[in-house]
Design a protein that fits this description.
353 residues; alpha/beta; Rossmann fold; seven-stranded parallel β-sheet; 12 helices; binds nicotinamide-adenine-dinucleotide; binds 2'deoxy-thymidine-5'-diphospho-alpha-D-glucose
């Protein structure tokens, strides 16, 4: 396979490239990333550029560039990670989320259709060259929020609550339409919250680890009793590979590890692992439209594709904390000026309360 990985300099994309190098090195990876604030080539420092791995700086909304990449590298598969991914940022700048997450995905779909369709001029033709697939990496947030009971299944209605999740849900629907109308071979995966190495420290777990290490306040939104269903990033990567290889065309697969925790449980676990003080906990103003609970029913991917997660949360979180302790230099480097400004804007008013 010649796999176009978009957003491969981000958290999950860079771990996917690393996972592929370890578990399926026979495939070629072409990594296209615009290197926004969230993309960092230092997250790929251990992956040498050679015949089986190439990095190209490009925006997924740039159709001319995508066309060139497909032609030059004979792309057979797309794994689309590229996105604006942070809910809080989507509340500040929804438009960026819509253009990147929806129009960027559509530009990729169009390019794949053009290059893979047996007769691109025939709008009725649903014939494609053999062995191609587009995989859209989506999120459980498209389903909205759960109450105390229940799980998201693939049949749950799409009820996104933030501009981020609305943009991801829109992209999912565009993908669905390209399967239904054009027969483009594709899958959609919807995963729960990931944690692990190389995650940008605006997200809960690396933010709390970093602040504990620096003895800075730990900003807890609202009452801290929101629930997320955590999965180690390598388990997400193995699930994506399973869907890429064995997923039935047109199907959606939820991915999750049956591991629900409140935010406060996670934060306290980090505090205790690092020997920090609970006095660092600061309750701040809640995120507008904050989803209360996410939890995934993963029975479709486990029964139909035989995928199971391999990490327990205890093993995964302690390895992850150790990784951030051992990689302080990476953390310092990703905390660029642009991020520091955003961080100050985002949290300063709450701490002044
Ligand atoms: P991330 O923010 O760490 O990485 C996103 C990457 O996309 C960055 O490298 C960035 O430079 C790149 N990018 C952004 N806009 C681009 C553009 N226009 N063109 C090309 N590249 C662009 O995100 P992540 O946490 O690694 O998430 C990756 C994907 O997985 C996203 O689609 C997200 O919605 C989805 N997802 C994330 C989680 C999670 O817990 N982090 C869970 C489920 C699904
Ligand atoms: O569920 C999958 C999604 O998980 C992905 O689609 C998103 O890309 C990813 O960012 C993540 O979204 P969340 O909003 O759940 O993740 P975040 O790390 O931003 O927040 C996790 C929880 O922690 C959420 O309830 C908000 C809370 N939180 C977060 C931050 C950054 C705090 O209480 N304080 C904080 O400072």
């Amino acid at each position: 396979m010649n796999i176009l990985v978009t957003g491969g300099a981000g958290f999950i994309g860079s771990n996917f490239i690393r996972w592929m190098k370890q578990h399926a090195p026979e495939h070629r990876i072409i990594n296209v990333d615009a290197l926004t604030y969230a993309g960092n080539l230092e997250s790929l420092r251990d992956i040498p550029q050679d015949a089986s791995y190439v990095f190209i700086r490009a925006d997924i909304r740039d159709r001319a560039k995508l066309d060139e990449v497909f032609s030059q590298h004979d792309i057979t598969h797309v794994v689309n990670f590229a996105a604006e991914s942070h809910v809080d940022r989507s509340i500040v700048d929804p438009e960026l989320f819509l253009t990147t997450n929806v129009l960027g995905t559509q530009a990729l779909l169009d390019t794949a259709k053009l290059h893979w369709k047996s007769n691109p001029e025939d709008k009725y033709s649903r014939e494609y060259r053999a062995g191609v697939k587009f995989l859209q990496v989506s999120t459980d947030e498209v389903y909205g929020a759960l109450g105390r009971e229940g799980l998201f299944s693939e049949a749950s209605p799409l009820m996104p609550n933030s501009p981020y999740s609305a943009a991801k849900a829109s992209a999912d629907l565009v993908c669905r339409s390209y399967f239904e109308t054009f027969g483009l071979p594709l899958n959609i995966t919807r995963c729960s919250n990931n944690y692990g190495p190389y995650q940008f420290p605006e997200k809960l777990i690396p933010l709390m680890i970093h602040n504990c290490m620096e003895e800075k306040p730990l900003p807890v939104y609202g009452d801290g009793m929101q629930i997320r269903d955590w999965l180690h990033v390598f388990d997400h990567c193995s699930a994506i590979f399973a869907v890429l290889i064995r997923g039935e065309m047109g199907e959606v697969y939820n991915i999750g590890g049956n591991n629900e925790r409140t935010n406060l449980e996670i934060i306290r676990q980090i505090i205790h692992s690092l020997g920090a003080s609970e006095e660092l906990i600061h309750f701040v103003k809640d995120r507008p439209g904050h989803d209360r609970r996410y939890a995934i029913d993963n029975s479709k991917i486990t029964t139909r594709l035989g995928w199971t997660p391999s990490y327990t949360f205890e093993q995964g979180i302690s390895e992850t904390i150790r990784w951030y302790q051992d990689n302080e230099e990476w953390m310092e480097h990703v905390l660029s000026g642009a991020y520091t400004e955003y961080y100050a804007r985002m949290y300063a008013p709450s701490f002044r309360e």
